[in-house]
Amino acid sequence: MLTRKFNLLLFDMQAEYIDVLFGKRGFKVPSKVKGSDGHVYVVEEQIGSGGNAVVCQCTDERDGMIYAIKFLAHTRDVNRLPRFQLETRLIEKLTHARHDHLIKFMASGEAQSHYFDPKRRQNVPFTMPFFVMERATMTLRSFLASSPGPVAQEIYNAQFRGLVGALELLHEHAIHRDIKPENILVVGERWAISDFGLCEPVEDVAEKDLTRAGEIPGPRFWLSPEANNRSVGLQESISAASDVFQLAAVFWWVVTRRHPSGILTREDWTGAERLYGPISTGLQHSLSRRYQGAKQFSEAVIAAIDDLVQA
Q: What residue stretches are annotated with the Protein kinase domain (predicted)?
């Protein structure tokens, strides 16, 4: 048994690797990994990183299809692995629901990685869990930054319809807590909600909230009022209504090309009158005046869009 483990380690250390960067630390990951679907994925250039992970482009060796592969790189915090495992289970479960506006899962697995420890002057091996998902063209933030003028109403109408439906489906399983333009990906001609790393499950009682004491879950500049209140020490729960606020904030930004800061009035809105009501209601700071969940928000937005299409 010890010989077998030594041989596997020797094989991994002699395999071809590519360099990835997480924070200030560089890692080596195998240039090929095998997923839970039995496919071999060729790992290519790094295309992003976040609080827990690095993302690379990869190619399915079998058919040449291009995907993204997300590796857990934050290994020192004991909460990071359970959170990554939860994200992997959730994105796989959501993919089975087949919604076009949720990023799709392909496979998962583990890769043997290593980094160089300058104090010990040697390579330190460790295991990096990963999952493979759709490869996006860009983030919604990048999409708007590259668009010289306003987004056409017929484009955002279709995307808003899809995104509110995606959030409604997501809320059957979890609260996202991290909706922002960087976590809405442009895949071809559709916008898809992604990055479920901060999700809090609502369905499976076996799951638990992995938020650390004092941690403020949510995106900087796009925090819901509840998350902002938590940041100043108030005991407030982040709920489905918090996700509604974040998505409504993104919608406001898409239409007006301005962040919905401060006290908003009808004069600040540059889109169709019919859409102002649902989006402004979604942006209410008071929970009692805001939609309590994605279902109410979805119904209101879709009804407004239907009226605009029929007008």
A: 41-311
Rounded to whole angstroms, the Cα distance separating 228 from 242 reads 11
End-to-end CA distance of the chain: 72
Does position 153 have pLDDT exceeding 80, yes or no? yes
C-alpha 183/C-alpha 248 separation (Å) is 14
Mean pLDDT, residues 110-123? 83
Instruction: Transcribe 239-273 into DSSP letters.
Output: -HHHHHHHHHHHHHHHHHSS---SS--GGG--S-H
For the chain, list the domains and their CATH numbers: 13-134 (3.30.200.20), 138-310 (1.10.510.10)
**Hey, what are 36's tokens?**
């839970």
Query: What letter represents residue 161's amino acid?
Result: R
- Annotated binding-site residue numbers: 70
Q: Which of 240, 140, 129, 239 is nearest to 184 (CA)?
A: 140
Distance from C-alpha of 259 to C-alpha of 286, rounded to nearest angstrom:
19
274-306: pLDDT as tens digits = 999 999 999 999 999 999 999 999 999 999 999
pLDDT recorded at residue 257: 95
What CA–CA distance (Å, rounded) separates 26 from 116? 8
Question: Does residue 216 surpass a pLDDT of 70?
Answer: no
Residue stretches of the annotated binding site for ATP: 70
Residue 161, pLDDT above cutoff 50: yes
Q: What is the mean pLDDT of residues 224-238?
A: 89
63-70, long-range: CB within 8 Å, 24+ apart, which pairs?
Answer: 66/135, 67/41, 67/106, 67/132, 67/133, 67/134, 67/135, 68/132, 68/133, 68/134, 68/135, 68/136, 69/33, 69/41, 69/43, 69/130, 69/131, 69/132, 69/133, 70/130, 70/131, 70/132, 70/133
How do strand 138-139 and strand 53-60 relate by DSSP bridges? unpaired
Q: How far is CA 93 from the centre of its chain?
A: 15
User: What letter would DSSP give residue 54?
Assistant: E
Angle of helix 240-256 relative to helix 294-310, nearest 10 degrees?
30
Q: How far apart are CA 241 and CA 294, in angstroms?
A: 7
Euclidean distance between CA atoms 180 and 124, whole angstroms: 36
